[in-house]
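Narrative summary of target 7.
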Amino acid sequence: MEKAITVKSLALSNIRKKPYRTTALTILVALASGVLFGTLLLTASIKGGLSGIKNRIGADLMIVPEGYEAQAESVLLSGEPNYFYMDRSIEETVRGIQGVGEVSSQFYLTSLSESCCDFPIQIIGFDPETDFIVKSWASKKVKGSDDDELILAGSSITTEKDSVRFFEHTHKVSARLAKSGTGMDNAIYTDISNLEQIFEDAKAKGFGFISDGNAKSKTSVIFVKLAQGVKPDSAAARIKGAVSGIQVIQSDKFVSSLMDSISSFLIFLHAVSVIVVLITVLTLSIVFNLSINERLREFSILRVLGADFKKLRSIVFAEAGLIGSLAAVLGIFLSTLILLPFNVLISEKLNMPFVLSGAGPLALFALVTFAVLVGACLVASVSGAVKVSKHEVYQGIK
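Modeled conformation, tokenized:
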């Protein structure tokens, strides 16, 4: 029994007859698909990282030693190990300033490469009693005590049997912190008393610090949450007037400045995507037109056999749609294959806040990419379909 000749079967037959052309077009569309999908995913992940750093900071103001603003930002953004100190008494001074609500400090200690990691990481000491930042990001409720050490591991820290090892001493991890897409995912947080022990272990191993850099008399960063209705500018001015040798960083301005610097990169990504899609449409349009010129006799014969102009146009659109569908899926698959397994490496190379989007956004980006690329292929085939409609039948079979 002979199979009925349909628009789809004719389109598939024509695609199979031109394997080299079909392969070239598929690669072109797949490239555009991969670039567009990758742009959507990277943009959403970077914006998610920005949101994460704003939420994770959890303070209106950050106070660091004067001249160490860049180092503090590198710790927050990329988790680059660093240490800098100021007198711990500043914390009490800031606590007494008008408009200040809550105050909590952190002490930065940089580790050697130990068994938990292949690279140095940041160990951060904090006071569980005054903390309003770290514990809220723990995966389970955290209760510190004088007897038990408190160790909170960032989401990117690799642990063995829920333990980490520093300077030949093993420490039990109390909880893991939720992913934020910031440098804080690469840090270990511990209470001050335990940090002092780690500090002593480090000194016993000959690890060097700047003069008097110890957790008893020094601190690295002071986080300030303002009372309701207090303006950050006014509070920052009062703090700088009361304490010398410090730099006050406003969290909102820090995030806004970061967003401004990242915006140019995001604009570049979107521009590349638009250019690639436009080049794809233009190239496909040229190729489809050349293909139609080669197949005018074929379309004329189909017209003589009873196919109307609508069916001939449908064949052209079906070919474009099939190539676009296959290539779009292929591009999305390959882009996913690159971005998902290597998202940590990509975030490190970008040196930007980065939180990989979840399954829902990924599915949405895939659908948008698929629709755009299939639509681009159909648009590119319009001129060819119009040419088929205007072609004189008998002229094509002379």
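The chain has a mean pLDDT of 78.
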